[in-house]
Amino acid sequence: MKKRIIYAIILLVLVIAVLAGIKALQIKAMIAGGKKFVMPAETVTTTTAHSDSWDSSLSAVGTLTAVQGVTVAGELAGKIVNIGFQPGSLVKKGDILVAQDVAAEQAQLQGALAQVQLTRSTLERDKKMLAERIISQADYDTALAQKEQAEAQVANIRATIAKKTIRAPFTGRLGIRQVNLGQMLRENDPVVTLQSLNPIFVDFALPQQQLGQLKVGQTIRVTSDAIPGLSTTGRISAINPLIDADTRNVKVQATIENALERLRPGMFVNVAVGLPVRQKVLTVPTTSVLYNPYGDSVFLVVDAKEEKELEAKEAKASKVPGKQPGPQGPPQAQTGKVLRQQFVRLGEKRGDLVVVTSGLKEGEVVVSTGVFKLHNGQSAIIDNKLAPNFQKAPKPENN
């Protein structure tokens, strides 16, 4: 019995040893295959980092407001007997919008006019009698006061009639009607909104550090995501003398032409304040940049031989005595061109381009598309047949 157990243990050990040997051979074969593996070259599109001269500008987000804008409301209570406008129409200053019932006031006006006529006649007669000393000065003064009171009553009734005829206070575009024919209008009930749309104000804020670069009359450019392709200019008309204590921003107001009335109060727009100084910048396409939390980078396309010489120099300069070089990565396909990942600092963006403030030199060749799938040291094949046309102010046809 003991011999059988010993034989079984020996057999089990032999089986484990055979399996371990087979697995070791498999791992050795995989390591050898990995060392011989050649990473395929990646086909890329390229562009050259080039210098350009850009207009200097200050960017901000603004809100459009009407030069004049009110909600027309009724001053006095009364029944609406006529509505003289169409919603959304253009009206001129003084046009009648709503007429209220003034029948009672018209009747009172006739009586007040008759009273004025009577007091005037009485005053003329008392004036002659005063000259002949038939009446006293006090009687004449009483007649004069009665005449003035009667005229004041007429003026009051006429003012009431005028207030019940609601007119446009200025030329502008009407909004949606908020009253109906026959409705009893109360004091301060809204009738319709009225906005003057041409020209129009744009209000925006800039940091206090940029206050010295602002002045009245300075040119601005306005664009809006709500109206693709819209780009219009205006001028700064006012700078608030008070700096906001919470945000440390200065409020600025500019006036822009709006003849087609495409811009409406309440819209937000992008504002660029033009500065007289032009700046020289180094630009690459935005699609060339690989954005990462630890830093933005681009891929340079360099000569493979030069890259190996550079790596050798760097390894020699950084070599520590007694320290062996680390394992090398898999060999690359020999195409003559390899990719080098270069970290950069970015600046302003305009259209398809972005400014590189450091990390890149003019004339260096960078990959323009598909950088998310590339690796440092990877071989590259350049093919620019389908390379996009990058522009500072693109105008896509499918806008």
TrEMBL record:
The keyword Coiled coil applies. Residues 104-163 form the Multidrug resistance protein MdtA-like alpha-helical hairpin domain. GO terms for cellular component: efflux pump complex. Residues 140-167 form a coiled coil. Residues 318-336 have a biased composition (Low complexity). Gene3D superfamilies: 2.40.30.170, 2.40.420.20, 2.40.50.100, Helix hairpin bin. Pfam families: Beta-barrel_RND_2, BSH_RND, HH_MFP_RND. The keyword Coiled coil applies. Keywords: Coiled coil. Signal peptide: none annotated. Residues 312-336 are annotated as: Disordered. GO terms for molecular function: efflux transmembrane transporter activity. Residues 70-189 form the Multidrug resistance protein MdtA-like barrel-sandwich hybrid domain. Residues 200-273 form the CusB-like beta-barrel domain. Belongs to the membrane fusion protein (MFP) (TC 8.A.1) family. This is MexH family multidrug efflux RND transporter periplasmic adaptor subunit. It comes from Geomonas silvestris. The lineage of its organism: Bacteria, Pseudomonadati, Thermodesulfobacteriota, Desulfuromonadia, Geobacterales.
